[in-house]
Amino acid sequence: MGCIYFASISCSHADIIVDNTAPLNQQPKVTAHLEKRKMCSVQNAHCQGGTFTTVNIVAPDANGLSHNKYKRFNNAIGKGHNELILNNTLADSTERVGNPHLTDKPARVILNEVTSNQPSQLYGLLSVAGRTAHVIIANPSGITCDGCRFNNTGHVTLTTGVPVLHGGELLGYDVNRGVIHIEKNGLKHNDDPYTFLDLFANRLKVNGEIRSRDIIAIIGKHAVGFAKSDETVAIRSIGGFSNDYRKAVNVDVSQLGGMYSNRIFIKTSGGSVLNKGTIDSDLVVNISSSFSIRNNNGTISSHKVKLKSEGFIDNRQGQIKSQRQDLPSHVNAKENFAIRLVGRNIFNKEGGIYANSGNISIQATDTVGNVQGAIKSNSTVGPANISIKSKAVNNFMGKIITSSNIAINTGHLKNNHGKIVSIFGQVDLSYKKVTDMSGVIHAGLEVNRTVKPLLTNSHRGWSHF
Prior knowledge:
- The protein is mainly β.
- The protein has a 40-stranded mixed sheet that branches. Strands 14-15-22-23 form a 4-stranded antiparallel sheet, with no helix packed on it.
- It comes from Yersinia mollaretii.
Protein backbone atom coordinates (compact mmCIF):
# COMPACT_ATOMS: atom_id res chain seq x y z
CA MET A 1 0.00 0.00 0.00
CA GLY A 2 1.08 3.65 -0.19
CA CYS A 3 0.77 6.45 -2.76
CA ILE A 4 -0.61 6.28 -6.28
CA TYR A 5 -0.35 9.43 -8.40
CA PHE A 6 -1.93 10.68 -11.58
CA ALA A 7 -1.05 13.69 -13.76
CA SER A 8 2.53 13.79 -12.42
CA ILE A 9 1.59 14.72 -8.87
CA SER A 10 4.54 14.31 -6.49
CA CYS A 11 4.29 12.81 -3.02
CA SER A 12 5.12 16.20 -1.50
CA HIS A 13 2.28 17.73 -3.48
CA ALA A 14 -0.25 15.28 -2.14
CA ASP A 15 1.43 15.75 1.27
CA ILE A 16 0.04 12.52 2.64
CA ILE A 17 2.66 9.87 3.33
CA VAL A 18 1.60 6.50 4.67
CA ASP A 19 3.66 4.89 7.44
CA ASN A 20 5.05 1.89 5.61
CA THR A 21 6.39 0.43 8.86
CA ALA A 22 2.88 0.05 10.26
CA PRO A 23 1.01 -3.26 10.01
CA LEU A 24 -0.50 -3.71 6.56
CA ASN A 25 -4.02 -3.46 7.97
CA GLN A 26 -3.17 0.08 9.15
CA GLN A 27 -1.74 1.34 5.85
CA PRO A 28 -4.31 3.20 3.73
CA LYS A 29 -3.85 3.81 0.01
CA VAL A 30 -3.45 7.40 -1.19
CA THR A 31 -4.29 8.58 -4.70
CA ALA A 32 -4.24 12.08 -6.18
CA HIS A 33 -5.51 13.61 -9.39
CA LEU A 34 -5.31 17.08 -10.89
CA GLU A 35 -8.51 18.80 -11.91
CA LYS A 36 -8.47 20.06 -15.49
CA ARG A 37 -7.70 23.76 -15.61
CA LYS A 38 -10.93 24.58 -17.40
CA MET A 39 -12.80 23.03 -14.45
CA CYS A 40 -10.93 25.12 -11.91
CA SER A 41 -13.33 27.36 -10.00
CA VAL A 42 -10.68 30.02 -9.26
CA GLN A 43 -7.82 30.77 -11.65
CA ASN A 44 -4.67 31.84 -9.85
CA ALA A 45 -1.10 30.76 -9.18
CA HIS A 46 -2.25 27.98 -6.86
CA CYS A 47 -4.90 26.66 -9.17
CA GLN A 48 -3.59 25.06 -12.30
CA GLY A 49 -6.59 22.85 -11.70
CA GLY A 50 -7.42 21.80 -8.14
CA THR A 51 -5.61 18.90 -6.49
CA PHE A 52 -7.86 16.20 -5.08
CA THR A 53 -6.21 13.71 -2.76
CA THR A 54 -8.17 10.57 -1.91
CA VAL A 55 -7.32 8.32 1.00
CA ASN A 56 -8.79 4.84 0.70
CA ILE A 57 -9.02 4.14 4.41
CA VAL A 58 -8.38 0.66 5.78
CA ALA A 59 -11.25 -1.67 6.60
CA PRO A 60 -12.88 -1.06 9.97
CA ASP A 61 -12.81 -3.59 12.78
CA ALA A 62 -15.82 -5.07 14.54
CA ASN A 63 -16.27 -1.80 16.46
CA GLY A 64 -16.39 0.23 13.24
CA LEU A 65 -12.90 1.73 13.78
CA SER A 66 -10.65 2.30 10.76
CA HIS A 67 -7.11 2.85 12.10
CA ASN A 68 -4.82 4.53 9.57
CA LYS A 69 -1.17 5.45 10.19
CA TYR A 70 0.91 8.09 8.41
CA LYS A 71 4.36 9.62 8.47
CA ARG A 72 2.83 12.85 7.21
CA PHE A 73 -0.77 14.04 7.15
CA ASN A 74 -1.12 17.49 5.59
CA ASN A 75 -3.61 19.36 3.46
CA ALA A 76 -1.36 22.32 2.80
CA ILE A 77 -1.04 23.08 -0.92
CA GLY A 78 -3.26 25.47 -2.85
CA LYS A 79 -5.18 27.04 0.02
CA GLY A 80 -8.90 27.00 -0.63
CA HIS A 81 -8.63 24.84 -3.75
CA ASN A 82 -7.43 21.43 -2.60
CA GLU A 83 -9.72 18.81 -1.16
CA LEU A 84 -8.64 15.87 0.94
CA ILE A 85 -11.12 13.01 0.71
CA LEU A 86 -11.37 10.11 3.14
CA ASN A 87 -13.09 7.45 1.06
CA ASN A 88 -15.66 5.65 3.21
CA THR A 89 -17.62 4.32 0.23
CA LEU A 90 -18.22 0.58 -0.16
CA ALA A 91 -16.25 -1.07 -2.94
CA ASP A 92 -19.33 -1.91 -5.03
CA SER A 93 -20.87 1.55 -4.82
CA THR A 94 -22.50 2.79 -8.01
CA GLU A 95 -22.58 6.44 -6.88
CA ARG A 96 -18.81 7.06 -6.86
CA VAL A 97 -15.53 5.21 -7.05
CA GLY A 98 -15.64 2.74 -4.19
CA ASN A 99 -12.93 2.01 -1.66
CA PRO A 100 -11.55 -1.47 -2.47
CA HIS A 101 -10.78 -2.01 1.22
CA LEU A 102 -14.44 -1.68 2.23
CA THR A 103 -16.14 -4.85 1.08
CA ASP A 104 -18.39 -5.39 4.08
CA LYS A 105 -19.25 -2.14 5.88
CA PRO A 106 -18.14 1.50 6.05
CA ALA A 107 -16.30 2.90 9.06
CA ARG A 108 -18.04 4.72 11.88
CA VAL A 109 -14.76 6.15 13.24
CA ILE A 110 -11.77 7.05 11.05
CA LEU A 111 -8.59 7.39 13.12
CA ASN A 112 -5.70 9.12 11.32
CA GLU A 113 -2.57 8.71 13.45
CA VAL A 114 0.72 10.45 12.62
CA THR A 115 3.72 8.51 13.91
CA SER A 116 6.56 10.85 12.88
CA ASN A 117 7.83 14.09 14.44
CA GLN A 118 6.26 16.24 11.71
CA PRO A 119 3.26 18.40 12.73
CA SER A 120 0.15 18.37 10.56
CA GLN A 121 -0.73 21.41 8.43
CA LEU A 122 -4.44 21.60 7.63
CA TYR A 123 -5.24 24.43 5.23
CA GLY A 124 -8.07 23.12 3.08
CA LEU A 125 -11.22 21.06 2.92
CA LEU A 126 -11.36 17.55 4.36
CA SER A 127 -14.40 15.53 3.31
CA VAL A 128 -15.68 12.06 4.03
CA ALA A 129 -16.99 10.36 0.91
CA GLY A 130 -19.80 7.90 1.51
CA ARG A 131 -21.23 7.32 4.94
CA THR A 132 -20.52 10.07 7.46
CA ALA A 133 -17.99 9.19 10.16
CA HIS A 134 -16.25 10.53 13.24
CA VAL A 135 -12.87 11.79 11.96
CA ILE A 136 -9.88 11.82 14.34
CA ILE A 137 -6.51 13.38 13.54
CA ALA A 138 -3.94 12.46 16.19
CA ASN A 139 -0.47 14.00 15.94
CA PRO A 140 1.63 14.40 19.13
CA SER A 141 3.96 16.76 17.23
CA GLY A 142 1.20 19.32 16.79
CA ILE A 143 -1.57 20.43 14.45
CA THR A 144 -1.95 23.77 12.66
CA CYS A 145 -5.31 24.70 11.17
CA ASP A 146 -5.43 27.75 8.93
CA GLY A 147 -8.60 27.72 6.88
CA CYS A 148 -9.34 24.06 7.50
CA ARG A 149 -12.90 22.90 6.88
CA PHE A 150 -14.71 19.62 7.36
CA ASN A 151 -17.58 18.13 5.39
CA ASN A 152 -19.79 15.06 5.90
CA THR A 153 -18.33 14.41 9.32
CA GLY A 154 -20.55 15.31 12.23
CA HIS A 155 -17.79 14.72 14.77
CA VAL A 156 -14.16 15.88 14.43
CA THR A 157 -11.39 15.32 16.97
CA LEU A 158 -8.04 17.10 16.67
CA THR A 159 -5.59 15.91 19.29
CA THR A 160 -1.89 15.90 20.08
CA GLY A 161 -2.45 12.82 22.19
CA VAL A 162 -1.27 9.31 21.44
CA PRO A 163 -4.22 7.00 20.75
CA VAL A 164 -4.62 4.27 23.38
CA LEU A 165 -6.07 1.00 22.12
CA HIS A 166 -6.80 -2.27 23.88
CA GLY A 167 -7.81 -5.32 21.91
CA GLY A 168 -8.42 -3.08 18.92
CA GLU A 169 -10.80 -0.84 20.86
CA LEU A 170 -10.01 2.88 21.04
CA LEU A 171 -9.99 3.80 24.74
CA GLY A 172 -8.80 7.40 24.40
CA TYR A 173 -5.67 9.53 24.12
CA ASP A 174 -2.64 10.20 26.30
CA VAL A 175 -1.87 13.92 25.94
CA ASN A 176 1.61 14.84 27.16
CA ARG A 177 2.79 17.44 24.64
CA GLY A 178 1.93 19.27 21.46
CA VAL A 179 0.15 22.46 20.45
CA ILE A 180 -2.95 23.00 18.34
CA HIS A 181 -2.67 26.30 16.44
CA ILE A 182 -5.79 27.89 14.93
CA GLU A 183 -4.48 30.62 12.64
CA LYS A 184 -6.16 33.66 11.07
CA ASN A 185 -8.20 31.77 8.45
CA GLY A 186 -9.74 29.73 11.22
CA LEU A 187 -11.51 26.40 11.51
CA LYS A 188 -14.98 25.82 10.14
CA HIS A 189 -17.06 22.82 11.10
CA ASN A 190 -20.62 24.09 11.02
CA ASP A 191 -21.85 23.20 7.54
CA ASP A 192 -24.09 20.51 9.03
CA PRO A 193 -26.79 21.23 11.65
CA TYR A 194 -25.27 18.76 14.14
CA THR A 195 -21.51 19.05 14.44
CA PHE A 196 -19.19 18.27 17.33
CA LEU A 197 -15.57 19.41 17.64
CA ASP A 198 -13.01 18.08 20.13
CA LEU A 199 -9.68 19.82 20.74
CA PHE A 200 -7.38 17.78 23.02
CA ALA A 201 -3.83 19.10 23.36
CA ASN A 202 -1.21 20.26 25.83
CA ARG A 203 -1.71 23.82 24.57
CA LEU A 204 -4.22 25.63 22.36
CA LYS A 205 -3.46 28.93 20.58
CA VAL A 206 -6.35 30.62 18.79
CA ASN A 207 -5.59 33.43 16.34
CA GLY A 208 -8.62 32.88 14.12
CA GLU A 209 -12.27 31.90 14.41
CA ILE A 210 -13.43 28.43 15.42
CA ARG A 211 -16.99 27.58 14.39
CA SER A 212 -18.81 24.38 15.27
CA ARG A 213 -22.08 23.42 16.93
CA ASP A 214 -20.47 21.99 20.07
CA ILE A 215 -16.85 22.57 21.12
CA ILE A 216 -15.02 20.64 23.83
CA ALA A 217 -11.43 21.74 24.51
CA ILE A 218 -9.47 19.72 27.08
CA ILE A 219 -6.05 21.29 27.40
CA GLY A 220 -3.05 20.20 29.43
CA LYS A 221 -1.57 16.84 30.31
CA HIS A 222 -4.53 14.49 30.46
CA ALA A 223 -5.65 11.00 29.69
CA VAL A 224 -8.83 11.73 27.73
CA GLY A 225 -11.34 8.96 27.18
CA PHE A 226 -12.86 8.28 23.77
CA ALA A 227 -16.50 9.32 23.62
CA LYS A 228 -19.22 9.44 21.03
CA SER A 229 -21.08 12.68 20.34
CA ASP A 230 -23.78 11.93 22.92
CA GLU A 231 -21.47 10.59 25.63
CA THR A 232 -19.63 12.23 28.52
CA VAL A 233 -15.87 12.61 28.04
CA ALA A 234 -13.84 10.96 30.81
CA ILE A 235 -10.73 12.89 31.91
CA ARG A 236 -7.83 11.84 34.11
CA SER A 237 -4.96 14.21 34.87
CA ILE A 238 -1.44 12.98 34.14
CA GLY A 239 1.50 13.62 36.44
CA GLY A 240 2.33 16.42 38.84
CA PHE A 241 3.18 19.89 37.63
CA SER A 242 5.89 22.30 38.71
CA ASN A 243 4.99 25.84 39.72
CA ASP A 244 6.62 27.19 36.55
CA TYR A 245 4.49 24.90 34.44
CA ARG A 246 1.33 25.93 36.25
CA LYS A 247 1.98 29.53 35.24
CA ALA A 248 1.96 28.62 31.55
CA VAL A 249 -0.92 29.70 29.32
CA ASN A 250 -2.58 26.54 28.07
CA VAL A 251 -5.41 28.20 26.15
CA ASP A 252 -4.58 31.50 24.42
CA VAL A 253 -7.32 33.24 22.42
CA SER A 254 -5.88 36.37 20.80
CA GLN A 255 -7.69 39.59 19.88
CA LEU A 256 -8.20 38.23 16.37
CA GLY A 257 -9.29 34.82 17.59
CA GLY A 258 -12.60 33.47 18.71
CA MET A 259 -14.80 30.45 19.37
CA TYR A 260 -18.39 30.42 18.12
CA SER A 261 -20.66 27.51 18.90
CA ASN A 262 -23.89 26.21 20.36
CA ARG A 263 -22.06 24.96 23.46
CA ILE A 264 -18.45 25.48 24.51
CA PHE A 265 -16.62 23.48 27.18
CA ILE A 266 -12.98 24.26 27.99
CA LYS A 267 -10.94 22.47 30.66
CA THR A 268 -7.27 23.05 31.39
CA SER A 269 -4.89 21.28 33.73
CA GLY A 270 -1.55 22.72 34.78
CA GLY A 271 -2.00 26.09 33.13
CA SER A 272 -4.28 29.05 32.57
CA VAL A 273 -6.85 30.33 30.09
CA LEU A 274 -6.20 33.73 28.48
CA ASN A 275 -8.93 35.27 26.33
CA LYS A 276 -8.37 38.53 24.45
CA GLY A 277 -10.85 37.68 21.72
CA THR A 278 -14.39 36.30 21.72
CA ILE A 279 -15.82 33.12 23.20
CA ASP A 280 -19.46 33.11 22.14
CA SER A 281 -22.03 30.35 22.52
CA ASP A 282 -25.79 30.15 22.07
CA LEU A 283 -26.49 27.96 25.11
CA VAL A 284 -23.57 27.55 27.51
CA VAL A 285 -19.92 28.46 28.05
CA ASN A 286 -18.24 26.34 30.72
CA ILE A 287 -14.55 27.04 31.42
CA SER A 288 -12.57 25.25 34.13
CA SER A 289 -8.91 25.92 34.90
CA SER A 290 -6.52 24.52 37.48
CA PHE A 291 -4.63 27.83 37.64
CA SER A 292 -6.36 30.95 36.31
CA ILE A 293 -8.87 32.36 33.85
CA ARG A 294 -8.02 35.79 32.42
CA ASN A 295 -10.52 37.65 30.26
CA ASN A 296 -8.41 40.66 29.32
CA ASN A 297 -10.25 42.99 26.92
CA GLY A 298 -12.09 39.90 25.73
CA THR A 299 -15.73 38.84 25.57
CA ILE A 300 -17.27 35.68 27.00
CA SER A 301 -20.93 35.46 26.06
CA SER A 302 -23.71 32.87 26.23
CA HIS A 303 -27.10 32.15 27.79
CA LYS A 304 -25.27 30.49 30.67
CA VAL A 305 -21.68 31.28 31.65
CA LYS A 306 -19.82 29.22 34.22
CA LEU A 307 -16.18 29.97 35.03
CA LYS A 308 -14.35 27.93 37.65
CA SER A 309 -10.70 28.32 38.61
CA GLU A 310 -8.62 26.81 41.39
CA GLY A 311 -6.63 30.05 41.27
CA PHE A 312 -7.97 33.44 40.19
CA ILE A 313 -10.45 34.79 37.68
CA ASP A 314 -9.43 38.17 36.25
CA ASN A 315 -11.95 40.09 34.14
CA ARG A 316 -9.77 43.07 33.25
CA GLN A 317 -11.60 45.47 30.91
CA GLY A 318 -13.44 42.43 29.62
CA GLN A 319 -17.09 41.52 29.20
CA ILE A 320 -18.75 38.46 30.70
CA LYS A 321 -22.32 38.45 29.45
CA SER A 322 -25.42 36.31 29.65
CA GLN A 323 -27.78 36.91 26.74
CA ARG A 324 -30.74 35.03 28.24
CA GLN A 325 -34.06 36.75 27.71
CA ASP A 326 -37.13 36.87 29.96
CA LEU A 327 -36.75 33.81 32.15
CA PRO A 328 -40.06 33.06 33.91
CA SER A 329 -40.11 33.78 37.62
CA HIS A 330 -41.06 30.18 38.48
CA VAL A 331 -38.03 28.56 36.82
CA ASN A 332 -36.23 26.07 39.11
CA ALA A 333 -33.04 27.02 40.93
CA LYS A 334 -30.84 24.84 38.74
CA GLU A 335 -31.94 26.65 35.60
CA ASN A 336 -32.27 30.23 36.83
CA PHE A 337 -28.58 31.15 36.91
CA ALA A 338 -27.10 33.22 34.12
CA ILE A 339 -23.50 33.67 35.33
CA ARG A 340 -21.62 31.65 37.92
CA LEU A 341 -18.01 32.48 38.86
CA VAL A 342 -16.04 30.31 41.30
CA GLY A 343 -12.39 30.82 42.23
CA ARG A 344 -9.89 31.58 44.95
CA ASN A 345 -9.78 35.27 43.97
CA ILE A 346 -12.12 37.00 41.53
CA PHE A 347 -11.27 40.42 40.10
CA ASN A 348 -13.46 42.63 37.91
CA LYS A 349 -11.26 45.62 37.08
CA GLU A 350 -12.97 48.08 34.72
CA GLY A 351 -14.87 45.12 33.33
CA GLY A 352 -18.52 44.22 32.97
CA ILE A 353 -20.43 41.20 34.28
CA TYR A 354 -23.93 41.48 32.81
CA ALA A 355 -27.04 39.30 32.77
CA ASN A 356 -30.13 40.18 30.75
CA SER A 357 -32.17 37.63 32.69
CA GLY A 358 -31.14 35.19 35.41
CA ASN A 359 -29.11 35.19 38.59
CA ILE A 360 -25.44 36.06 39.03
CA SER A 361 -23.44 34.06 41.57
CA ILE A 362 -19.86 34.96 42.52
CA GLN A 363 -18.00 32.78 45.03
CA ALA A 364 -14.37 33.29 46.03
CA THR A 365 -12.37 31.57 48.72
CA ASP A 366 -10.39 34.73 49.49
CA THR A 367 -11.29 37.99 47.71
CA VAL A 368 -13.82 39.49 45.33
CA GLY A 369 -12.59 42.80 43.92
CA ASN A 370 -14.91 44.99 41.85
CA VAL A 371 -12.64 47.90 40.95
CA GLN A 372 -14.38 50.47 38.73
CA GLY A 373 -16.28 47.56 37.25
CA ALA A 374 -19.97 46.78 36.85
CA ILE A 375 -21.94 43.73 37.98
CA LYS A 376 -25.52 44.00 36.73
CA SER A 377 -28.61 41.83 36.27
CA ASN A 378 -31.34 43.65 34.42
CA SER A 379 -34.46 41.46 34.24
CA THR A 380 -37.73 43.00 35.42
CA VAL A 381 -39.76 39.79 34.96
CA GLY A 382 -37.80 36.71 36.00
CA PRO A 383 -34.90 36.00 38.38
CA ALA A 384 -32.20 38.66 38.61
CA ASN A 385 -30.55 38.12 41.98
CA ILE A 386 -26.88 38.86 42.62
CA SER A 387 -25.10 36.84 45.31
CA ILE A 388 -21.47 37.34 46.36
CA LYS A 389 -19.69 35.18 48.92
CA SER A 390 -16.06 35.63 49.91
CA LYS A 391 -13.73 36.27 52.84
CA ALA A 392 -13.31 39.83 51.59
CA VAL A 393 -15.36 41.98 49.20
CA ASN A 394 -13.89 45.25 47.91
CA ASN A 395 -16.27 47.37 45.82
CA PHE A 396 -13.94 50.24 44.90
CA MET A 397 -15.78 52.75 42.73
CA GLY A 398 -17.66 49.79 41.31
CA LYS A 399 -21.34 49.18 40.62
CA ILE A 400 -23.38 46.21 41.82
CA ILE A 401 -26.88 46.82 40.50
CA THR A 402 -29.96 44.69 39.93
CA SER A 403 -33.71 44.99 39.63
CA SER A 404 -34.06 42.19 42.19
CA ASN A 405 -32.18 41.15 45.36
CA ILE A 406 -28.53 41.43 46.38
CA ALA A 407 -26.92 39.16 48.98
CA ILE A 408 -23.32 39.71 50.09
CA ASN A 409 -21.83 37.31 52.62
CA THR A 410 -18.29 38.20 53.63
CA GLY A 411 -15.86 38.56 56.47
CA HIS A 412 -14.68 42.03 55.43
CA LEU A 413 -16.74 44.45 53.34
CA LYS A 414 -15.43 47.62 51.69
CA ASN A 415 -17.61 49.94 49.62
CA ASN A 416 -15.21 52.75 48.77
CA HIS A 417 -17.18 55.20 46.58
CA GLY A 418 -19.02 52.23 45.13
CA LYS A 419 -22.72 51.61 44.52
CA ILE A 420 -24.73 48.61 45.71
CA VAL A 421 -28.26 49.10 44.42
CA SER A 422 -31.37 46.91 44.38
CA ILE A 423 -34.02 48.83 42.46
CA PHE A 424 -37.10 46.80 43.41
CA GLY A 425 -35.79 44.23 45.89
CA GLN A 426 -33.73 44.09 49.05
CA VAL A 427 -30.06 44.13 49.99
CA ASP A 428 -28.88 41.53 52.50
CA LEU A 429 -25.43 42.13 53.96
CA SER A 430 -23.69 39.70 56.29
CA TYR A 431 -20.20 40.58 57.50
CA LYS A 432 -17.79 40.57 60.41
CA LYS A 433 -15.96 43.76 59.57
CA VAL A 434 -16.79 46.86 57.55
CA THR A 435 -14.30 49.57 56.57
CA ASP A 436 -14.36 52.54 54.24
CA MET A 437 -18.09 52.70 53.53
CA SER A 438 -17.95 55.97 51.59
CA GLY A 439 -20.15 54.52 48.88
CA VAL A 440 -23.91 54.22 48.57
CA ILE A 441 -26.27 51.33 49.25
CA HIS A 442 -29.91 51.55 48.13
CA ALA A 443 -32.77 49.06 48.25
CA GLY A 444 -36.26 49.29 46.82
CA LEU A 445 -37.60 47.32 49.79
CA GLU A 446 -35.08 47.22 52.63
CA VAL A 447 -31.44 46.86 53.59
CA ASN A 448 -30.83 44.01 56.03
CA ARG A 449 -27.56 43.88 57.92
CA THR A 450 -26.26 40.94 59.88
CA VAL A 451 -23.34 42.48 61.71
CA LYS A 452 -20.92 40.33 63.65
CA PRO A 453 -18.42 41.83 66.15
CA LEU A 454 -15.72 44.23 64.97
CA LEU A 455 -17.66 47.00 63.20
CA THR A 456 -15.58 50.08 62.29
CA ASN A 457 -17.54 52.26 59.88
CA SER A 458 -19.58 55.44 60.20
CA HIS A 459 -22.58 54.18 58.16
CA ARG A 460 -21.98 57.01 55.71
CA GLY A 461 -23.82 56.59 52.43
CA TRP A 462 -26.37 54.00 53.56
CA SER A 463 -29.94 54.68 52.49
CA HIS A 464 -33.25 52.98 51.88
CA PHE A 465 -36.07 54.05 49.63
